[in-house]
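Table S4 entry, Crossover junction endodeoxyribonuclease RuvC.
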Amino acid sequence: MRVLGVDPGLTRCGIGIVDGGAGQAPRMVAAGVVRTPADADIALRLLQVAEEVEALMDRYRPDTVAVERVFSQHNVRTVMGTAQAAGVVALAAARRTIPVAWHTPSEVKAAVSGNGDADKAQVATMITRLLRLSAPPKPVDATDALALALCHLWRSPLQNKLAEQTRLARGIRMVAR
């Protein structure tokens, strides 16, 4: 399975692509950052994020896109930009019929480090180890995107099994009525 992880942002949108599956060690395919100038018009910045993410989707053909769920911050402007960037990424995936999964920061940290309150340095250390890299990817937004991709890679089989069991349970209840 190939997962495109996205750490959304307008100034720096982290991108990380990971391959893996049952019985396979995860492997980094690509990592980087889409950058837009802070002084540019917001519509043009969103367009740039969309175009670069779409090009990556077309080039690497991910099976799923994992996006960090926007959480509340004190800086409303930052939250809005992050949410808008996440929205254009989700739209780009939907246009390609690629499923989108949303993960919270604490969920991602717990998945890769075992600690939902891990700091950026702990996450970077674990990503470096888990993907057998010689150094943490730079900037940190790329590392965070790889963590999102790994989180989804590992959590999706369990989530799929739970969803299937829920569907089966509902079907059984419907028959029993």
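The chain has one domain: 2-176.
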